[in-house]
Structure formats: structure tokens, C-alpha cells
Specification:
heterodimer; A: about 110 residues; B: about 110 residues; mainly beta; 11 strands; about 60% strand
Chain lengths: ~110, ~110
């Protein structure tokens, strides 16, 4: 069975401070990992995926297979980063492979 | 986003009544999903579809049924609503290409009193 754990329900940081959202997973195979974000009054949308190794809106995430983690980081948080963030896992790159989501972390960036 | 429309956006219903939520997409995506979002649980998969008339259960399917009679519509039915089904329901679609992301609807807030 696949499982995703986000230990922090709420992260509150000041603007300009670093922010790190933790994500740990359990999966017996080789996982595909994603971060989805939901801004206030907007749809849930993909932020980034580990396979792309890209930085989106200043966020990066590195897959650590040894620690089974996929933490999301940003060195300098902005107020517009306030949102709900979900880590998600898929067992395959192929389409139609259902995502398992973590419980979510709400980020509040204070001015 | 991928032309996904959920209806209704909000609904209040009484325990024991049937409820149907609709997801409509205009992108001809093959895969469609119904998730429920609850505090502390994140999004949990209820049912999904990998084509017309092809559906399967997710992790929290009890008390729910789905139908997909055409590509663009995916219906979620609560046969007899219970208070534990009070939640926000999200529909998502996915096309058939490699590593494609999910596209989400705006959600339906359902309250069962």
C-alpha cells in the first residue's frame, strides 16, 4: 500500500524567511512524487513534480529515496505563497495511475 | 482549467436522501476521478474512471456510486446521504499522455444535516 504523510498541518512563517514543508512516503516500488497547491478561492493545481527537477515560483523539492522523503523548500517565503499544499504519490509515470495524497499543510506567510 | 465544471457548487441535504454530483469536462480527457477533501485527511479517492462505462473503486468508496455514460460526464451518487459524507468533493481529470498532471474542478461543498 502507498501512503503519504505530511506531519505539519500548519506552518506559519514571516515574509522573507525560509520555509520547508515535509513529506514522507511509503511505497514498495519506485514512486513518482508531486506537490499540488491550492490558493484561496482557486482550484487545486500542480506545483511541481520530482521527475522534472525544476524550480517553480522559487520552490524546489528533492526526492530522497533513502529517507523516503520529498520535502518542499523555498529560501525566501512571500505572502502570495500562503496556501494549502499537498504532497502526492503515484506508482507509475503512466496515465491513469491514481494519486495518493497526504493530509496537507497550510502555509501562512505573515508580513 | 481543462474546462472542468462541477455542479452544484454547494448543496445542503438531509440524512437519508440521495444526492448526485456532476462533473463535466470539455477536454476529452480519458481519466476522471472523484476525491473528497477533509481536514487532516487531505484528498481521498472515492471512485475513478478510465473510460466510458469503465469505473473502479477508490479507498473510500463505501456509500458512493458513480457512472460515466459519456466521456465528458462523471456522476457521483450518494445513495442515502449520511452526516459523515459532509465534505468538499473534487473532480479531477487526466489525459492519456505520459506523466500528465491532474486537472481539478472547483469543488462541491456538500453538507448533510
Amino acid at each position: 500500500a502507498q501512503r503519504v504523510t505530511q506531519p505539519e498541518k500548519l506552518l506559519s512563517v514571516f515574509k522573507g524567511a525560509p520555509v520547508e514543508l515535509k513529506c514522507n512516503y511509503s511505497y514498495s516500488g519506485s514512486p513518482e512524487l508531486f506537490w499540488y497547491v491550492q490558493y484561496s478561492r482557486q482550484r487545486l493545481q500542480l506545483l511541481l513534480r520530482h521527475i522534472s527537477r525544476e524550480s517553480i515560483k522559487g520552490f524546489t523539492a528533492d526526492l530522497n529515496k533513502g529517507e523516503t522523503s520529498f520535502h518542499l523548500k523555498k529560501p525566501f517565503a512571500q505572502e502570495e505563497d500562503s496556501a494549502m499544499y499537498y504532497c502526492a504519490l503515484s506508482g507509475s509515470k503512466a496515465a491513469g495511475n491514481k494519486l495518493t495524497f497526504g493530509g496537507g499543510t497550510r502555509v501562512l506567510v505573515k508580513p | 482549467d481543462a474546462g472542468i465544471t462541477q455542479s452544484p457548487r454547494h448543496k445542503v441535504t438531509e440524512t437519508g436522501t440521495p444526492v448526485t454530483l456532476r462533473c463535466h469536462q470539455t477536454e476529452n480527457h480519458r481519466y476522471m476521478y472523484w476525491y473528497r477533501q477533509d481536514p487532516g485527511h487531505g484528498l481521498r479517492l472515492i471512485h475513478y474512471s478510465y473510460g466510458v462505462k469503465d469505473t473502479d473503486k477508490g479507498e473510500v468508496s463505501d456509500g458512493y456510486s458513480v457512472s460515466r455514460s459519456k466521456t465528458e460526464d462523471f456522476l457521483l451518487t450518494l445513495e442515502s446521504a449520511t452526516s459523515s459524507q459532509t465534505s468538499v468533493y473534487f473532480c479531477a481529470t487526466e489525459d492519456s499522455s505520459y506523466n500528465s498532471p491532474l486537472h481539478f474542478g472547483n469543488g462541491t461543498r456538500l453538507t448533510v444535516t
